[in-house]
């Protein structure tokens, strides 16, 4: 096999999901209510996830897709068997915090929740699949939001530390790859989803967001410290919503604007990977007069307990301009970008840029020199199944093949260190951004629609068999 065509030995191929987008069973076995449960599909969704509209419980006239999602809670053995058939080496999933601590501030965990994930992890190992576990994937118990104000409150450090200690102790030997917070930089763009924050009138919103960011960053360092103490085999990563920002033109003002947007994007990872706040962030806070509360002990924790690897989602690159009014906008992963005239777009307006993934890999590697893990990448599209649930999804295959080839070039030609790749939504699930089911990413079709109708029946798409070949050949089947 040509070395140029294949990936490194031991490369971790797999797929990714999130508890709130696939598990359902929102009140079974003692699970408590979480922020992600009370976000409906429809026109109010964006206002709620960005903390502009308060919705702390279910209300009449709305449909809440996370209540049932794709009911993986009752189908996980069937689903993991399908992942095993594809040859997954790893499966990225997340813990629903409110399954383990229903309110979030209890002293003792919920055994039924712990047992569910233990069974799930054991099922993965049955097929030789290594779990990659996100501790918090846009997931905060509603009690912590109502009682404490979410991550704006320092008390959440104590509750998160207890959650981590419980997970690392219970799953020692079953899980060794951990991510502390999913797309941690989303906190700045979707504060309710990212940090359980709903803004009060008259609050300094920037100060609230960055105070919450500090608390999450310290919590991430605490988790890293605990993980290494409890099991030295543990590897802990951070997770970024990535995608290089291009200047719209070579006008230096556009280049400067792109650099500013990259700074905002990398801020969290600069701290998690390097161990200290970057000067550009300190100067930004100074300009805005933000007064953030942080202790010397916090800063020592950040310095001494940096992450082992950097993981990220990549769907598209972005474009920035000093005068954005002069350009058309495009859709993106919660935060929009300017339209790139050189790129095609998906049905949801997300632009498709495989070379941008290679560029992003190089930028992150050059910046941090830490191993990387691509934990989300995929194409959201409307699928048209036949009577047996089979989908000819060549558009998805084309998208993924182009991105996998770009990864391969980054490893073999540029020398970046990449541990693995998990496609987003390896089984169809509820979209985090829009709440839709019709926006599908998976290799496995799930009979479920935007209104919550359907049998939950699983069926294999054409891409299922294609990805199985990619994994079996370690990427070589894609050719040049």
From TrEMBL:
Protein name: 6-phospho-beta-glucosidase
Record PANTHER family: 6-PHOSPHO-BETA-GLUCOSIDASE, GLYCOSYL HYDROLASE
Lineage, broadest ranks: Bacteria, Bacillati, Bacillota, Bacilli, Lactobacillales
Keyword Secreted in annotation: no
Keywords: Glycosidase, Hydrolase
Superkingdom assignment: Bacteria
Similarity annotation: Belongs to the glycosyl hydrolase 1 family.
Keyword flag Hydrolase: yes
Active site feature: 376 (nucleophile)
InterPro entries per UniProt: GH, GH_1_N_CS, Glyco_hydro_1, Glyco_hydro_1_AS
Segment forming the signal sequence: none
């Amino acid at each position: 096999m040509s070395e140029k065509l294949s990936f490194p030995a031991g490369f971790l191929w797999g797929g990714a999901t999130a508890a709130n987008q696939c598990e359902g069973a929102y009140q079974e076995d003692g699970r408590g209510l979480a922020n992600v449960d009370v976000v409906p599909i429809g026109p109010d969704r964006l206002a709620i996830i960005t903390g502009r509209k308060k919705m702390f419980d279910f209300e009449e006239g709305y449909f809440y897709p996370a209540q049932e999602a794709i009911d993986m809670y009752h189908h996980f053995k069937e689903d993991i068997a399908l992942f095993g058939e594809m040859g997954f080496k790893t499966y990225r999933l997340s813990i629903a915090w409110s399954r383990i601590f229903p309110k979030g501030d209890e002293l003792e965990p919920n055994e039924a929740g712990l047992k569910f994930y233990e069974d799930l992890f054991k099922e993965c190992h049955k097929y030789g699949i290594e779990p990659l576990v996100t501790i918090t994937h846009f997931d905060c118990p509603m009690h912590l939001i109502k009682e404490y104000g979410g991550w704006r409150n320092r008390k959440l450090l104590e509750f998160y530390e207890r959650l981590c200690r419980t997970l690392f102790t219970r799953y020692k030997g079953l899980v060794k790859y951990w991510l502390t917070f999913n797309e941690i930089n989303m906190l700045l763009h979707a504060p309710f989803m990212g940090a359980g924050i709903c803004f009060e009138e008259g609050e300094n919103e920037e100060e609230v967001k960055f105070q919450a960011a500090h608390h999450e960053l310290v919590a991430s360092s605490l988790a890293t410290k605990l993980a290494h103490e409890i099991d030295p085999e543990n590897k802990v990563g951070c997770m970024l919503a990535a995608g290089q920002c291009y200047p719209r033109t070579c006008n230096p003002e556009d280049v400067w604007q792109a650099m500013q947007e990259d700074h905002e994007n990398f801020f969290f990872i600069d701290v998690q990977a390097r161990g200290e706040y970057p000067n550009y962030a300190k100067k930004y806070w100074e300009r805005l007069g933000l007064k953030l509360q942080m202790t010397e002990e916090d800063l020592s924790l950040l310095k001494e307990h940096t992450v082992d690897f950097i993981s990220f989602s990549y769907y598209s690159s972005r474009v920035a301009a000093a005068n954005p009014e002069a350009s058309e906008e495009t859709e993106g992963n919660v935060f929009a970008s300017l339209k790139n005239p050189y790129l095609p777009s998906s049905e949801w307006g997300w632009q498709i840029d495989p070379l941008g993934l290679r560029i992003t890999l190089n930028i992150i590697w050059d910046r941090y020199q830490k191993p990387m893990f691509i934990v989300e990448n995929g194409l959201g599209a409307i699928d048209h199944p036949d009577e047996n649930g089979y989908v000819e999804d060549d558009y998805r295959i084309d998208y993924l093949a182009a991105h996998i080839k770009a990864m391969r070039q980054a490893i073999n030609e540029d020398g970046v260190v990449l541990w693995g790749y998990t496609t987003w939504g390896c089984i169809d699930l509820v979209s985090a951004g829009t709440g839709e089911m019709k926006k599908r990413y998976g290799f496995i079709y799930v009979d479920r629609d935007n209104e919550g109708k359907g049998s939950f029946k699983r069926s294999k798409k054409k891409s299922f068999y294609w990805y199985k070949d990619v994994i079996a050949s370690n990427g070589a089947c894609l050719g040049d």
